[in-house]
Write a structure and sequence with these properties.
The chain is 47% helix and 13% strand. It is of the alpha/beta class. The longest helix is centred in the first third of the chain and has 17 residues, at 12-28.
Amino acid sequence: MKVYVANGLFSIGDRYVNAAIATALREAIDGITLYVPQENDAINDKEAYASSADIARADLEALKESDVLVAVIDGVEIDSGVAAEIGAFSMLGRPIIALFSDVRQQGTQNTKKIEALQQHAVENQFVYRNLFVVGLIKQRGVIVSTIEEIVEAVKQYN
């Protein structure tokens, strides 16, 4: 099984999450092959040079070869590269597992939060994700909240 792990890779937090996902998947699933873009020094060694075409070519080839996409959709907004990877991968008709760990998912039944939102949209204590991207994920897979749930979801496609 080949899995592509999509997330930002420029901050220490993103690189840490990517490494944690990769470690969890490699420990839990024998024979899994991962493509984690931050591990591809040919295009992501920031001391070296790779053109935009080089990056697109390498990542698209890895997407085409993958059976499952694991995409992290955390952050203020979904990382633009991750959104593009989700869009490209959705065209292949293969499963997408998205990690969304934002704590603002909690409390959706809290009536005070709902009333505040109804009175003033700027009092939104929840979180927004681009609905087109969410729709692509839901057509092909699931959105989970933890790395452990990623592992369980990937196992279903192994």
